[in-house]
Structures are given as structure tokens and as C-alpha cells.
Fold this sequence. Notes:
alpha/beta, Glycerol-3-phosphate (1)-acyltransferase, seven-stranded mixed β-sheet, three-stranded antiparallel β-sheet, 10 helices, acyltransferase activity
Amino acid sequence: xxxxxxxxxxxxxxxxxxxxxxxxxxxxxxxxxxxxxxxxxxxxxxxxxxxxxxxxxxxxxxxxxxxxxxxxxxxxxxxxxxxxxxxxxxxxxxxxxxxxxxxxxxxxxxxxxxxxxxxxxxxxxxxxxxxxxxxxxxxxxxxxxxxxxxxxxxxxxxxxxxxxxxxxxxxxxxxxxxxxxxxxxxxxxxxxxxxxxxxxxxxxxxxxxxxxxxxxxxxxxxxxxxxxxxxxxxxxxxxxxxxxxxxxxxxxxxxxxxxxxxxxxxxx
Length: 268
């Protein structure tokens, strides 16, 4: 089938040697800047496909992937890819080729299925930019904006969901509002721009999406939770809404626990 062949070609663009080069060069800087800590990465199954579902943090300069991926490769090696589903807009610029070689693939059910059926791990942020620009004062809330497609993807591919939580990146600047109302007022929703975030940070002060402020060195902690076997827990014909509610509940409990362990903003 031509469609399946296209998806196979998409995931075949992952270049383990290039991924290792980037991880070895960039990730140490990011991990040191954020004093990053990844807990329990070995909760990801040692073999076979798995869908890692995480909240998304830090706005435009989200460090999530560059914190989790190196820990994954340190544990499982570069003979097993971890693909990240990304918004189509990421591939419209000059970094298109580099991103695909790193294992970033355009977010679609077909691409995710092809990667999962190949035995790879797929990282998805269901909340996308809606999540990564959540207000700092409501940072410790799991909110996917009603998106449940990840559940269907896991069910159809027959793989476990591995919930993962991240805390700290919403302290890299002061995220004031997603700006949904402003995007609607300016008619940006017609161009599929549902938010126009407003934040305050360094060095530009108040920013309405642009110019983007640089991230403060907030401590970031990520924790990989125990995998969820959807069929074993919810049956052969699971209710998608019920599974989604359970995943978010598990993640919220973990995020609340991590929030309780933090003592000071930015310092962690």
C-alpha cells in the first residue's frame, strides 16, 4: 500500500549516528543548565513498541525531548529509536532534514502506528503547544485540551501507554496566559493558530509569542511511570474516554507528588 510505504520511509529517516552526535553535543548543556533529572526510565518496556505520553512544558524552548531522549539512549542504546511526534509547522523550516534524522516525525496516527509496529518507542505530547504554554500559576495541571487520539493509537497498535510527567520548565519564564482569546480576536484561528501566548522573562520582558525570551535555569525533573496495558486493564473494547481519564489521573497524582517535593521556584 502506498500510504504504508510512505510511513515506512518517514521512520527510516532516523539516523542513529546523527542522533548520538546531537545528543552528545547539545544535551549535556541542556541537562546541566536545567540540572535535569530523569527518574525510572527503565519503566519503558525493554523491547517492543510503547507509547510514552507526557505533559509538555517550557514554551518555545521546551527542554523535554533533550532531557528524556539521552536518558533513553543511555539505557537502551542507539539500536532502538525513540521517535517524537511533532507539529507539522516544525518541518516547514530549514531544520526539516535534521529533525527527521533525530527521529522527530510529523504527528499523525499513521506515522505513529508505523513506528510502533516497527518495535520503536514513540513519544507524544497530546497537549502540544496548548500544554507547553500553560500559565505558570497553573503549571501543575495535566490538561491535554480534550485530545484523546493517543489512546486510540495505543489500542490499534497493541502497545502499552507509558505515562511520563515533567515539572520545572514552566518556571523558565513567567507564562501569563495562553492567549486563546487574543488569537480568536485577531482571527488567527483560521490559520490553525489557537493560542497567542503572553509571557514575561529575560531579556525582552513582556513577550506576545515573539520575541521569545530565553529560559531561566529552572531545575527540571521528569519521571517515567509504570506502563498501562490498556486491554488487560480495560478489556478488548475499551472506552477511550475512560482510558484517557485514567492516564491523566495517574499523571496528575505523580505531578502533584513532584510539586510537593519542590521548595523554591527555579531552584527546585
